[in-house]
Every structure is written in structure tokens, then in C-alpha cells.
Amino acid sequence: MLATNLYGMSFSHGIFSLPLLFGTFGPTGISQSSHRHDTTQHNTTQTQHSRIVSTLITFRMARNLGGFLVLFLAISICEAASIFQPISDSHRSAALELFSPTDGSFGSLEETYEALRTFEILGIKKRPDISAASCQSVSETLGSSTSSLKDVFHALKVNSILKCKVNDETFQGVAKRLKAVLNDASSLLDFYYSIGSLVLIKDQNSGVDVLLHDADGVFRSIKALSQSDGRWRYSSNNPESSTYAAGLALEALAGTVSLASSEIDQSLIVTLKNDIVKLFDSIENYDDGSFYFDEKLVDAREHQGPLSTTSSVVRGFTAFASVTSGSINVPGDKILGLAKFFLGIGIPGNSKDFFNQIDSLACLESNRVSVPLILSLPATVLSLTKKDQLKVKVNTVLGSSAPPLTVKLVQAFISGTKDSSVIESLELKFDPETAVHFLDVLPKSVDVGNYKFVFEIVLHDSEDKSVYATGGQTQVPVFVTGLIKIDNAEIAVLDSDHGSVETQKQLDLAGENAVSLSANHLQKLRLSFRLATPRGNIFKPHQAFLKLRHETKVEHIFVVGNSGKQFEIILDFLGLVEKFFYLSGRYDIELTVGDAVMENSFLRAVGHVELDLPEAPEKAPRPPPLAVDPSSRYGPKAEITHIFRSPEKRPPQELSLAFLGLTLLPLVGFLIGLLRIGVNLKNFPTSAVPATFALLFHLGIAAVLLLYVLFWLKLDLFITLKTLCFLGTFLMFVGHRILSHLASTSAKLKSA
Amino acid sequence: MSKLLIFLTLIPLLPILTTSFSPENPSSRRVLVLLDDLALKSSHSVFFNSLQSRGFDLDFKLADDPKIGLHRYGQYLYDALILFCPTTERFGGSIDLAAILDFVDSGHDLIIAADSNASDLIREIATESGVDFDEDPAALVIDHISYAVSNTEGDHTLIASDEYIKSDVILGSKKIEAPVLFQGIGHSLNPSNSLVLKVLSASPSAYSSNPKSKLSNPPSLTGSAISLVSIVQARNNARILISGSLSMFSNRFFRSEVQKAGSPTKHEKSGNEQFLTELSKWVFHERGHLKAMNVRHHKAGEADEPTIYRVNDDLEYSVEIYEWSGTSWEPYVADDVQVQFYMMSPYVLKNLSTDKKGSYFTAFKVPDVYGVFQFKVEYRRLGYTSLSLSKQIPVRPFKHNEYERFIPAAYPYYGAAFSMMTGFFIFTAVHLYSK
User: Fold this and answer.
1) CB neighbour list of residue A540: distance below 8 Å, 6 or more residues apart
2) Superfamily of domain B289-400
3) In this complex, do B189 and A627 lie within 8 Å of one another by their Cβ atoms?
4) Calpha distance A589→A653 (Å, rounded)
5) Where are the domains of chain A?
6) Which residue among A426, B14, B141, B165 has the highest number of C-beta atoms inside a 10 angstrom radius?
């Protein structure tokens, strides 16, 4: 049940047009539940038809105040017109996709029934085989005395399709139990399930006594739950009335009538027929001619979407119509509207919706009141050049053939201009082989363009008129397309002052062009061409753009206007320099001409013009920033390697060694000099003490020099200075002793 | 008392129970779908089913449901948001423009589908994301040259486009053969926004205008500048998909056969399903989400990471990069990952080699400039989440004793000094004792 509880589901048909306005007031002070009502704009459900812009705005005026005012306001730009296609093969393939069993069954019996019934209606032979598992489930449900009414009901429904082997005793037992339930039933669902089940037993096993002896009583107790506006309550202690329940009630009442052992009181039937009429008074509609039922009171728990609500009413209504004689006063166009509603949904994406749609359409297809006929066009885009035929199909909702009839093209007018009709009253021929009504050639008065065709179905047999609902006139948008002739295309550069032509080139807009022009800001560029329809009339396309693109990708677009017979645009560069941002240089010229009804729409590079514009003044506007190519923003960067400082230049080693030799030369010279002057050590002290001091003094000097060498090689400054400190003191001492000795010796010599 | 005990024991389990968005598991899991109409659930079921079959938990709500909210008690309830409610003027509950922007700012994903009658609210959300829808509310993208051939749609607003962005990460590696059907409004990208990308663009002949009214001024959007579907990857790696058409997600378009005008091939199925499924994989971080880990560097021949490098050291750098596949982290393979050795500007920028198992490595010499450097990996690629790694490391100059000794060029100086010293020593002896 949850799956069906789609809140506020409603479907539009691609087109909303005339303002749709309705307000609803619920019973006051009953529901405090929150009210949510959504509007829909749902363009995709329609299988294939033109889509026209629409706007739908919801205003929620009041909520939780006991009374609700819901205002739906649909504003649209264009008029309503749409076509509905009957059920086709795409539904069949979708059905197989949607109803695919898992582990050999569809889950619950209800889902199994929905799947089987859908396959049955659509005539799908290759359905998955699930009879073994389902039949077992059916017999289990029917055999058990504790299974719920709803399960019994659905089990019987599955059985009606699968024809499982269920023995008579089981049926007897179930029938007995159902009758017992029926006797003290008080809620609508009890009635619905028990009566529904009894009807199913009657159809499946004629040996079981299912007839109701007190049919009138049952009828009255169900009727007692009805409301004055044609809706029903679920039970006597639940004051809320629902449209969905009305459908269930009608189906139960239909069952009661068929189960009655004696004729039901006719007055009851008559009041019920009035109720149905009242119920149909509350029908809601979209402006494309489709009708639907929706719950007026929106309760989150019990609420059913428009699809299931409408579906329930249709089932109940058709069931009741089939068991009663006499007419029910429901207009045929409402029935047709209901069919359009279901067809307008297209192919629903969930199985419950799909079943509701198909089952309701099947009910409508075979209903006794009026069978809707759907007029559809296989193609609404017709080519004048290819001489396409206008084809119209008339089918029942499930796509089976219609009774003998003629389709009349009442009127055709250019959309937007309602008064000027191009065709009046044409009868379409019928091709019995393909069951298509067609118009051989479109009349001369139909040129390329966007038309609205108005069709009418005329039934041949006057008896059929009471059986079928044709819905009067049907308006269909039709596009008549064709090849457009282009000629007199030329491009010219004009002198501004005199208007004299400086250069002029002919263009072939059907082929390639590569004109090259040059102009300065004092000149003008003129481009002109002429368009004609296949019928020779002037054609005005929706899109006629001239695009100038500068080398720097700055683009300028101009709409080419039409002056009488031909399309012409004159670009006065003097007035455009600012717009062109004073950018001189090459401009590529591109011409685009296109229209929905033009089969040879084109985008053509015409050539280029070399523009010589004045220098930009300081305050000139800058060209807008251009979109950057995303790939340039990403991608790896160039590698960077660090350039290391190169080592300083050094002289070759030989040179250093040569200079080393040179630096040693003075020492050698000094030594030779010493030898030459005959140095000796005769002054060296001879006595032991001064000689020791002399030795120590020189050793000390040698130690200091050695310390320097060590400092150079490895020692640091601190150790060196420390050591030097000691050595220095030592040197001072021994130096003083030896020097004073030497001094005294030399003084003695002098004095001697 | 026992209930309390059970409760207390369950509390530590809570983080395990919630399978939500996290750096370790970046796919969105819980998705809020806001609809104008619950019928969309049925008419767009193929798209939703494909999401559900990939493990997403979709929560369908009406856009004006008064109970909806994106977060509660400071926690986001959802990882992603799908806005299939083009006409909604105001959301119900606590959701508004600011809430949605906050949602994206905190790294969550968003899909917006607008339509011809898109409300100001939806337009504003799109504008905040960096795209501008055509301001004319009645405008549709029209293309008289590359439209989809149809027997019943004659106004050329049903466009068959195959001008996709060239990126395997966004649209999957499998080529989309059939054109994508589009019917809706066009938008342009804000040129100053560098994060937004055109995924599906219109053909050069397209323009955006009201098909019912005559054109007197050039339309504001024309040609390939019209974007039909765009994506945004924010700096926090939140991803947004913006489409000007809600119907392109519908079952009808998914199943529809398509023939582009002027092309002889008729495809049995439009490219919509593949295009949007692949794109939704990207948006929901099932593809193109990278993570980097185990950044290591050391001197050549050593294993430990030093605290400082000396100029001219040889070093080795390695990083591991993985891509999220929707279920697990797979090694990321590319040849354009680069590392920078950076101080104010890159001194070294080098491509990383890969072992195709996710590890990227290289070796280089520290420049002869000292200071505080960074190892930087700035990996920004189309469609991938950006990686931005940086690791600081100082570089010192040579110590005084690390320079070269006994340079041959200095031999003359050495010789001079030593000869001087030798001479001095001899001189002292000679001077004192010579007679």
C-alpha cells in the first residue's frame, strides 16, 4: 500500500495552458494533519508529443485551518494542444522490464496479480513462468483459515488468471468464511474484499454457492457509508470521505448486484446512479482535455495519488456499469478525458502505477457506458518537400482497431492566428490495410509553417455513437517543413558618404564561400539574401544571425532583419567601433539561418573582412574576459631544474706548482747567500747552562712554527692560542736567559 | 537500568554503524532527493534505480515538505542532495539557499536540474555555483541544425548533443556512442570562475530564446558558449552537477531512440543513461577522488628522514597516491605527478616516476641556496580532486670545515709561508750565533 501512497501525484501532459484554477474546501475541524499539496510540472510523461512551455505556480494560501484553499494557477504561453498515443509495444517491453520476478515469484500475491493482469491485458505471451510458486502460495492462502481477507482476495485474483488446481472444499470453506465476514462487516474494506472474493469464486467454481440472499441488505449497508457528494467513507465511525473509497464501494456494489439471488431493488440502483453522476461532478481536469479524480482531503496516511484514485473510480464505475442495465448519465468526453489522463502518463517507472494505468485502460476499453477512441498522429512533422502524407490513426486506448468511421479535418490554421484558417473541412481517406486515415497531398494553401489541425471523428454507424466516445474536435499541432530556396545572396562594402558600392561579391549560401573583404570604420558592410518557401512565398526564419568573430575570439552577433522581400543587414562600422572595442584586424563572418520548419537550416562561414578601426581612446571599454580552455588550466607544468653555481675558475696545477717553485726560490737564495758569506755557529755558548737555554730557545721557536703548521692542518684557533700561550711564556723565559747571556758575553768582549 | 547499560554499550558502536561520508570512504551514501512532484520518482526511476543499485540510500521528499532539513544537532543528515524541483520557489523545513551553500561548503555533493520554468531559487543556487541560466523564463535552447529527429517534436528544442568534455575521469573510459538528448534551458559559465566546467555544450548553431516569439535582438546565449550540463568541483572537493533539463534524466529520454539531424545513424537508445550514470559516479565521488599518503624523503643511500639538508645533498622523495573506486582505494597511475622543491618559488620541479602500484618517486640534488624549503605536490587535473601536499624542510650552507682543503691553486701561498718560516728559523740561529 505504501508504494501507492504517492503523495499528491498528478501528471500533466506536457502542456498546461489556460489558467487552471480551482479551490477546494475540506470539511472543517476534522483533520489536523498537515496539508501538503504539490503541483506538478511534468513534461516527460507524455510518450511523444510536442512540448510547450508552461509554468505552474502553486500558491498555498492556508493550511491547518480546517479549511483549505488550494489555488492552482497554471500560466502558459501557448494554447493547449496535444496528442495522446494509445498503448504500444514500448509499453510491452517496459512491462517485462518492470515486472521481473525475483527467485521465481513477484513477492506478495498482490504484486503477482498486478504482474499477471498487466501481462494478460497487454497480451504478452512470453511472460516469466511463476505459476508453480504462485499456485502454491494461492493454495496455502486459501487453505489457511487465518489468512487475511486481503490476501484471500488477491489469491483468488491470481487464481483467476493462473487457474491453479484448488479443490472444491477449499472454495467452499473460503466462501463460508467470507459470508460470515460479510454478515457482520462494518467497514468498507471488509465489504470490498469479501464481496470481491465471492465474485471471483463464482467465476472460478460454479459449484460453490456464493449467492447472497440478503443482497439488498448488503447493498444498503454499503450505501449507508456514502456521502452526499458521491464519495464514500471507509467506515461508519470514520467521518472522512474519500474518492478512492468511492471506487472501492462501487466495485463492491457491482459485486453485490451480480451475487444477488433475486433482483435488487431498482430504487437503490437509481440512487446509486445519481451518486455516480455526483461523483463525476467532482472530476478535475487539465486543460489538454484529460480528466482525473483526486482526493479532496489530503491525509498523509490514507492519501492516494490521483493515479490510484482515478484508477479506483474507473474500476468501480466500469464494474458497476457492466452489471446494471439502463444508462448511466456520464458524458462520453469525461470517459475520454479519463482515458487521456491515463495515456498522458506515458510509461510509468514503477510497477504499481503501471498496473493501475493498464488495468484502468482495460476497464475503459471494454466499458459499457462509452468506449473512448483515441485519435493519434504517427507524425506531426510533415515535410512538404518529401510530400509526406498526413496520417491519422484512430484506435481504442489499448491500440485495437476502431469501428468504421471517417476522420474529418475540420480546420487548419497557423498557430497563433486563430482566425485565418488555411483548410476548411476536408475528409481523410481510409486505408483499410494499415488502418490509417490519410490525406494524399496537403492542399496548396498549406505552406511551410507551424499549424494547428483540428480533427473530428465521424462514426459511420449511428449505433456506435452511443457506444463510443470520440470527444468532438481534437486540436493537434503540426509542423509542415520544407526546403527553403536561398538566392540573391550577396555581400558588399559600401562607402558611408555616398552609399556607393566599393566591393560586392555574390554568395552561394548552399556551398562553401571564402570572400575576403577589407573595410575601414568609415564604411559599411551589407549582407543580403532572399528566402522563399517551396510554394514561392517569402519565408521568415526564426534564426537569422550574422556573427563576426575577431582573431581574439571576441564575437559579435547581429540579427538579420527582413525588409519586405529580402533579408538585409547593414553594419555601419562607424557606429560599431565602440562595440567592437576598437579591435582592428581580421573578422570571420558566419551566417546562421534556421527555423523549425526549414529543412535546410545552415551555419555557413562566409569569409572574412579585414577591418581597420581607429586607435582606442584611453577610456574605451575593454573586451570582456573570455572563457579559458579548461585543459590549459590543468596539465603538468614544465620541469624546472636548479642551475647550480659554477665553481670558480682555477689556474692549472702546473702553473701553481711552478709558482710554488718560485716562492721557494728566495729561501734557496737565502741559504746559498748564507753559505757564501760563511756562516758559522762559533758564538754558540759553550758552557752547559747557556747552551741548554739556547737549545731550548730554538726548540721553542721550532715548536711555535710547528704549531702554526698544525694550526693550518687541523688545530682550531682555541687550542692553538692556548698552546701558543704556553710556548710564548716558555720562549720569553728561555729567550730572555739566552739573549741576556749573549748580551753579557758580547759586552765582556767589547770591554775586553 | 539494563536498558541504560545496553545504551551505554551501544554508544561506542555508533561510529561503526553509520556508514557515512568520511575521508576514508569518500562516496556519498545518503542522498536527499527533493522533488516538485512525487510522480518524478516513477517517471525518472531508471536514474534513481541506477543510484540505488550502486548502494545509495535515496530519501525522496517533496521540496515544500515542512519536515525536511539537511542537518540536525550539528550533524549533516545527508552526504548529497539532488534538486529535481525546478519550479520550487521556496523549500520547506529549514532548507534555503544559505543552507544549501553551507551544505556544499562543508564538502557535500549536489545535483541541480532546472527546466524552462526554473524558479528564482534554483537560478540563484546555480548562480552561486558559477553558472548563469538564461534570464528569459520562456527561453529554451533551440538548435535548427543538430536537433534530434522526431516525428512529433517539430520545434527543434529537443537537442541531440555529442559535444562532451574530453575526460575519462568525468565521463568514464567507455566512449558514449549515441548523442545525449536535451530539452531545457541553457546556461553560460561565469568566466571568472575557474572551478566550473562545461561537460555537455551546445553546437555552434544553437541559441537560447523563446521559440514562440520573434527575435528582434540577438539572444544572450548563442553557439558553443551555451552549456547544457556543467560541473563544479569546489576547492573542498565538493562536486556539483548543473543541468538545464530535468527531462534528460527521465525514463522517456533514457529509453528513447535518437537520430541526430543530418546524421544517417539511428541509435536505439540515447546516450543519456550512460552519460548521466557516469557523470553521477563522478559527482558522488565514485571516481576521480585521490588521496596521497606516506610522503617520504631522505638522503640518497639513507633510510631515515633528516631534519635538515645541506646544499648540494642528493635526496630521494616518494609519495603514494590512491584513487577511490567507489568501494576501495586503487593505485592511481599517471605520469604527470610533479614535486616541487619550493622556497618563494620552485627551485626544482620534477616529474615523479611511478611503479604503477601507487608509489611515486624521484631523486634530485638540493639546490645550492640555503633557507627553509618545502616539498610541494600540487596535483590539479581535470576531473580529479586536487592534491596539495607540502612538507617543510630547512637547507643549510656548508659548515666551515666542509669546504675543500689544500687547493693546488693555493700552493704558492703555502710555499711562501713555509719558506718564510724556514728562513726565519735559520735566520734566528745564524743571527745569534754567527761570528
Assistant:
1) A531, A562
2) Macroglobulin (MG2) domain (2.60.40.1930)
3) yes
4) 74
5) 1-17+37-53+76-97+213-368, 99-210, 373-481, 485-622, 684-752
6) B141
Instruction: Check if B151 contacts A (Cβ < 8 Å).
Output: yes
To the nearest whole angstrom, how far is the Cα of B10 from the nearest Cα of chain A? 31
> Does residue A545 have a pLDDT over 80?
yes
pLDDT over threshold 50, residue B299: yes
- SS3 for A744? helix
Q: Residue A728 in 3-state DSSP? A: helix
CATH architecture of A373-481: Sandwich (2.60)
Residue A87 predicted with pLDDT over 70: yes
The pLDDT-based confidence of A455 (bands split at 50, 70, 90) is: confident
Per-residue pLDDT, B206 = 92
CB contact under 8 A, A381 and B430: no
- In angstroms, the CA A317 to CA A309 distance is 12
Domains A373-481 and A485-622 share a fold: yes
Question: How high is the pLDDT of residue A696?
Answer: 92
Q: Minimal Cα–Cα distance from A680 to chain B, Å? A: 5
Q: Collapse the DSSP code of A255 into the 3-class scheme (helix H, G, I; strand E, B; otherwise coil) and give the result.
A: helix
pLDDT digits (tens, 9 = 90+) for A473-523: 888 888 888 888 888 888 888 887 776 777 888 888 777 788 888 888 888
- CB atoms closer than 10 angstroms to residue A625: 9
Lowest mean pLDDT among B43-52, B81-90, B146-155, B332-341: B146-155
- Architecture category of domain B24-283 in CATH: 3-Layer(aba) Sandwich (3.40)
Write down the mean pLDDT value for chain B: 87
Mean pLDDT of B335-351: 92
Q: How many CB pairs under 8 A join A and B?
A: 309
**Is residue A625 classed as helix, strand or coil in its secondary structure?**
coil
Phi, psi of A247, deg, nearest 5: -60, -45
